[in-house]
Design brief:
about 90 residues, mainly alpha, Multidrug-efflux Transporter Regulator, Chain: A, Domain 2, 4 helices, about 50% helix, globular
């Protein structure tokens, strides 16, 4: 299994974000904020992008958005399609 580096375990993500491991797991289950890779032993591993996404959602919730709203907003930003270039005739 090829995994992007750097990798973080859930304990490290918890320390970086200030969120409990339980909250991180619940956000994964309920809102699919991130879907971490799993090692052969079942441990979750997170990429830098995963941590950044969790922090973005946390920032929005700190501003008063619900987790659902924040997850939706972050998802829309990430999946925004690139504009199709217009080629002149």
């Amino acid at each position: 299994m090829k995994i992007e580096k750097p990798l973080y375990f859930i304990k490290q993500v918890s320390e970086i974000t200030g969120l409990s491991k339980l909250v991180i797991r619940k956000w994964e289950e309920r809102y699919q904020i991130v879907i971490p890779k799993r090692l052969d032993n079942g441990y979750r591993v997170y990429t830098e992008a995963d941590v950044t996404k969790i922090l973005s959602v946390k920032d929005l919730t700190d501003q008063g958005y619900s987790v659902k709203q924040a997850a939706f907003f972050i998802d829309k930003i990430e999946t925004k399609p690139e504009p199709t270039p217009v080629i002149p005739d």
